[in-house]
Amino acid sequence: MTRILPSIMSPRDLADLSVEQLEQLANEMRRSLCEVATTRTAHFASNLGVVELCLALHKVFDFSRDRLIWDTGHQIYPHKLITGRFARFATIRTRGGLMGYPNPDESPYDLFMTGHAGSSVSTALGLASGDDLCGRGDRRAVAVIGDGALPSGIVFEALNNAGFLKKRLLIILNDNKMSICPRVGALAEYLDVIRTNPWYRGIKHQAGEIIKGVPMVGESVERMLLNVKDSLKATLHGGMLFQSLGVRYFGPVDGHSLPGLIRYLELVKDEEGPILLHVLTEKGHGFKPAADDPVFFHTPAPFECDDDDCVIAIKKSSARTYTDVASESIGRAMRRDPSVTVITAAMCQGNKLEPVRGEFPDRFFDVGICESHAVAFAAGQAKVGCRPIVDIYSTFLQRSYDQIFQEVSLQNLPVVFMLDRAGLTGPDGPTHHGSYDLGYLRLFPNLAVLAPGDEHDLAAMLDWALTQPGPVAIRYPKAVVDLHPGQRPPIEMGMAEMMRGGNDGLIVACGTQLGASLAAAKTLADEGLDVAVINARFVKPLDPRIVERIEAAPWVVTVEENALPTGFGSAVLEACADARMAEHRSPMPPLVRLGLPDRFVEHGERGELLAEISLDAAGIAAACRSLASRQPLSVTVGQTANR
User: Tens digits of per-residue pLDDT, 357-371?
Assistant: First the structure.
């Protein structure tokens, strides 16, 4: 049988394909997804679930003119396969290859680089409004959003505005009963009622039979029957949730039936005003292991399959990570103290909190993709005597910025923030890199900000944080742990740790770049340079002894896996400037800040990216050599110099 997928250069090539050919194409696309997933970690189950939906959308709409936004974006792989990127598909999530999320630099069919959930309805409504204002009102805007993202606050803000503006907008609710983990909350229960109500399912079947039974039925008659059926269903189940916001509701529709999907999309595409089409899909559809365990196969480790699609080996690393340490430390804290709770935002699996959830179901709270609510909820718990831990990725915690300010820091409440994936996250790329947390957290009064240098620090910092009267934030990367031996001092407010003495220069390491800094110091020692290394531990408050050591050093390098503007190095410069002004001290020695550059770092393996921006041992050593030799510093991306 001739393969179809290699011949698809753009969605226009779908126009002449029959339903049978489209179904063959769907199978070929799933095979391509499997081939990628056997070679590297990639989003998998979610992409398997939207293959037919992707094909139907591109069959019915012309997204060279119309507008399409994929919410969250990690289910973009089928879309990439049919928008001219099949030849490069094997490079996805590798350095220099295709991004695992939408990327406007790759294709005009990708309008936004979407990596955070919930924003699609707002941006699609903005596209529809803007097209109207610019005289392009014949274009259609479509937002595809998952049921896991639907409870996000911004979605309801957008629905409220969409019902008021009454622009032509199609919202596809991709309902697979999942976020990354099984969805949670009252809205999830509401969608389950719509899925399973037997009375409505009977009405749906009968309406379908009526339509089939009318010879040469006109589209207007079919649309009329469709509206009667869906209005009746909405009334029966309190399905007025969307209708009452001014958004007409249709569905649910089988998301794996290409003929049904195409027909429904044809029926609703020219309707005026905002419409929500409820599409039922199965995460992992077409690959039984993923359908049976969509949580594991969301982003599985590379695996091997036999000819019958049975998984025969999983190439899973046994290396211990900072996420493992954090999860274990949270579990120990909850065993010690019944007032400790943990709150996450649809990231139970990513944060490896399944054992905590199983052991402490009454003190584990997954609030869904609702980070602002998670932080305000934690503030409420803290106010009445609980010790809440908010365990959220760095890049997602910034969605709750106002609540960190108003509900936590301003009230000086003892909430502990555990920021997983701080720094570079590797193949997930710029939407997921935790590049900015030091800058957005160290601004707030009352909030202590810590960065562990190794496994010992992380565990000790959480224990310390849970004894503090105010808020504490601890950030750590998606990386294999380091553990530096020796007698380690306890965690004390604002106290750094001297890891290595030396008189020829000074490296001040913030966070897990401590290991690379020590390795750089060892290399330099072999070359005859005796360089001291400090493990900063605290970003705020900064240890005043660091300033004293800097003033006594011939030269200084600060190292952080955070954006340089407003980051740790900036905090050091501010403290040194304040000390010099207050005490009329002599000028500072030469100082170089190493960190993430003032640009968005692309995707790739974390080690590759760190080397590229001089945050590995070789890059740190090179910066030290330049300062020691008083040669003009070769400032690369990620470096700034104070001369």
Answer: 999 999 999 999 999
Specify the fold of 322-475: Rossmann fold (3.40.50)
The question of whether 335 is a catalytic residue gets the answer no
Catalytic one of 283, 363, 478, 606: 283
| Tokens read off for 556 | 């200084």
Average pLDDT by consecutive 10-residue portion of the chain (643 residues)? 90 95 96 91 91 97 97 94 96 95 96 93 97 95 94 93 96 82 67 57 43 46 54 50 88 93 94 94 90 84 74 74 97 98 95 97 96 97 98 97 98 98 95 96 97 98 98 97 93 97 97 97 97 98 96 96 96 92 74 96 95 96 94 51 44
CATH class of 500-642: alpha beta
E runs forming strands in 476-553 = 497-500, 505-510, 531-535, 538-540
Catalytic residue among 399, 421, 475, 606: 399
Whole-number Å distance between alpha carbons of 390 and 371: 9
Q: Is residue 288 flagged as an active site residue? A: no
Domain ranges of the chain: 5-197+237-288, 198-235, 322-475, 500-642
Fold designation for 5-197+237-288: Rossmann fold (3.40.50)
* Phi, psi at 509, each rounded to 5°: -100, 130
Per the annotation, the verdict on 283 as an active-site residue is yes
Radius of gyration of the chain (CA): 27
Burial zone of 599 (CB within 10 Å; 0-12 exposed, 13-18 middle, 19+ buried): exposed
Q: Cα–Cα distance between 203 and 556 in angstroms, integer? A: 74
Q: Point out the catalytic residue in the list 282, 328, 371, 497.
A: 371
Query: Are 322-475 and 500-642 in the same CATH fold?
Result: yes
